[in-house]
From TrEMBL, chain A:
Gene3D superfamilies: 3.10.20.30, [2Fe-2S]-binding domain. This is Unannotated protein. The keyword Transmembrane helix does not apply. InterPro entries: 2Fe-2S-bd (IPR002888), 2Fe-2S-bd_dom_sf (IPR036884), 2Fe-2S_ferredoxin-like_sf (IPR036010), Beta-grasp_dom_sf (IPR012675), Diverse_Oxidoreductases (IPR051452). It comes from freshwater metagenome. The keyword Iron-sulfur applies. The lineage of its organism: unclassified sequences, metagenomes, ecological metagenomes.
From TrEMBL, chain B:
This is Unannotated protein. GO terms for molecular function: FAD binding; oxidoreductase activity. SMART domains: CO_deh_flav_C. Keywords: FAD, Flavoprotein, Oxidoreductase. Signal peptide: none annotated.
Amino acid sequence: MQVTITVNGVEHSRDIEPRMLLVHFIRDELLLRGTHWGCDTSNCGACTLWVDNEPVKSCTMLAVMADGKAIRTVEGLANGAELDPIQKGFMECHGLQCGFCTPGMMMTCRALLDGNPHPTEAEIREGISGNICRCTGYKNIVAAVQWAAENPATSEVTA
Amino acid sequence: MQTPAPFDYAKATSVADALALLDKHGEEARVIAGGHSLLPMMKLRLARPDALIDLNDIAELRGIRIEGNEIVVGAMVRHAEILSSAILAEHYPIFREAEHMIADPIVRNRGTVGGSMCQADPAADLSAVGSALKGTAVIQGAAGTRTVALRDFHEGPYETKVQAGEILTQVRYPIRPGAGSAYEKVERRAGDWAVASSGVFVVVSGGVVTDCGIGLTAVGADHYCAPAAEEFLIGKAPTEENLAAAAKIAGDSCNPVADQRGPADYKAHLAYELTLRALRRAARSSQGA
Ligand SMILES: Cc1cc2nc3c(=O)[nH]c(=O)nc-3n(C[C@H](O)[C@H](O)[C@H](O)COP(=O)(O)OP(=O)(O)OC[C@H]3O[C@@H](n4cnc5c(N)ncnc54)[C@H](O)[C@@H]3O)c2cc1C
Ligand code: FES
Ligand code: FES
């Protein structure tokens, strides 16, 4: 089936099987491997990307369902060489260790801040409750989001 | 890697179009809403439809609005929209309280009311809410439209009154001036399905309970409700003693099964305790406290 999907501002047309999951379309057809693929059961959130500005677990959406839609992945967070504040927050606050959860986590956190620029700690923790991190214990991820909230458009990373 | 078996796919543009597509693709076709129950089942081959009819682009299945003395929720309304709806928050806080504990914020961006009701999972939270509020389901097929009380909608686990060739289009909840409502859930960890949940509404007038509804999920309650407990409470003062007696009837009417979420007696105890907590809060809020 023919689909046209815009990913990080670039239109891609492909002929795919209806059963192809969006996460495999992104990783294996477009070779955008920033979006991770973990549990495959919509629990871990590693595959989180945006469909029309909303975070979605892409292991549980068919690529054909994204036909005509705009996708944003972790590769689309930075503005050229300029990292997004959430990416800087993860650097500044040591918000990752192995990095497996990080792309999905950052996509969730960016959306959280877009909807609520000054979330409380409880709101951050609820906001990331669909993204599992096995390394950090979440403390530094919360700190990274708080850093990004306080530095919405800084241009320098000191870390 | 888990991938569903092959199937045909078509995007419906209207309810009429969806019904025509269902007819064209035959008995083994299924509609897909958020896909957050159906796709996992297809990956595991627990479901193997020949064709999927996608409801996501059907505008007439969207939206939450008031019609007469009912709140009308379209089948394709997402959990996230229920959580943020001002209309639902004003009339029935039970929705917000339940939604905060359904899955996680990302899953809530996709999962829908219609999918949740039609999946008929024995632990579905919105099924308990719908039974508590005594809502109605609107079902449309080639032969026309019919309504079914939500308390009759579920035939059993994973089975509903929606027949092949039909779709659920709306869920409607009666507005009850002065009603208080509340939802209580115990889960093992954030985002998990319920160990047990109870949701209620109560109307207190002239010092007595004049109307109430009790919904339960994950505890084997018939049609996700406890009518004997409601009957007991109506006409009585909302005292701690009466609320506890009603909660006891509700707890005793359940038939939970032991699983990885806990033993049966623990779940039965939760059915009682959570019903009592929800009744207390709903009665208090109906009395303006
Ligand atoms: C990780 C995770 C955690 C979850 N936790 C909870 C929880 O705590 N509590 C809870 O209640 N739920 C929970 N859910 C379920 C979730 O709430 C969704 O509601 C559920 O997945 C079904 O909605 P859907 O739109 O995704 O339906 P789909 O998966 O698209 O469909 C489910 C079934 O309903 C049928 N269907 C869908 N729409 C219609 C319609 N309009 N007419 C006729 N048939 C229809 C489909 O054919 C299919 O058989 C969880 C899900 C996940 C993935
Ligand atoms: S891979 Fe999609 S949620 Fe885990
Ligand atoms: S950094 Fe390793 S899983 Fe989060």
